[in-house]
Amino acid sequence: ANAGYFGGMDTLPLSTDAAHSASSSGRLHALAGDTLTIRYTDPTTASDSCASGNITLSIRPQNSSLSVATTVLVGETITVTVVDVDQNGSGVTVETVSAVFRNLQTGETEIVTLIETGANTGGFRGTLHVKTSKSDSLSGSGRMYVRVQDTVVITYTDANDAADISAGSVTVTT
């Protein structure tokens, strides 16, 4: 069982992060829609106990974050990581989100699927290969045509909250 404080103004910290599922974490691992029942048993008189009714949890959305290296070598891969815990709808399923990669110099755009890094993590990762071949310059090809000093902007928009936008940029180097 997870540790927590009950009564008065004390709170039981909740977390959607699976890393907090260990009983020693001091947090209760829970997801939106989970049902919580609180039971209290007096440590000196076991017959002195009470229980709450069922409590259905709702998780307040949090803003997403996006991380990406600031430079990439020609011919290498851009790797992007997005953390958006409210896109973690299932504690047992690996889910996906999408990010838009846009070369500011050529206008080419690629939509890349980011895959959750594990069930119940809320972290998503995806990659895009950057090439110098003009045959890779068609939007939607799964590869991006780049030249040295091009800037690729990556934008993630939360599918459930259009105001939650995270972005980063990468400069192509040699």
Describe the protein in words.
With 174 residues, the protein is mainly beta. 0% of the residues lie in helices and 41% in strands. The chain contains no helices and 15 strands. The strands form 4 sheets. Strands 7, 8, 9, 10, 11, 12, 13, 14 and 15 form a 9-stranded mixed β-sheet that branches. It has a two-stranded parallel sheet with strand order 1-2. It has a two-stranded antiparallel ribbon with strand order 3-6. The termini are far apart.
What can be said about this structure in brief?
By secondary structure, the protein is an all-beta fold. Helix content is 0%, strand content 41%. Strands 7, 8, 9, 10, 11, 12, 13, 14 and 15 form a nine-stranded mixed β-sheet that branches. Strands 1-2 form a two-stranded parallel sheet.
The proportion of residues in beta strands is: 35-45%
Q: Count every beta strand, where a strand is a DSSP E run of 2 or more residues.
A: 15
Radius of gyration: 22 Å
Mean pLDDT: 83
Order of helices and strands: EEEEEEEEEEEEEEE
Quaternary class: single chain
Helix content, binned percent? under 10%
For the largest beta-sheet, the strand count, sense and barrel status come to: 9 strands, mixed
Distance between the termini: 53 Å
Low-confidence stretches: 1-9
Principal-axes geometry comes out as elongated
Number of helices: 0
Please identify the structural class as seen in this structure. Answer: mainly beta
Write the layout of secondary structure elements.
Blueprint: E1 14-15, E2 28-29, E3 35-36, E4 39-41, E5 49-51, E6 55-56, E7 65-68, E8 71-73, E9 77-83, E10 96-103, E11 109-116, E12 123-131, E13 143-145, E14 151-157, E15 165-173
Parallel strand pairs: 1-2, 8-15, 12-13
Antiparallel strand pairs: 3-6, 4-5, 7-9, 9-12, 10-11, 10-14, 11-12, 14-15
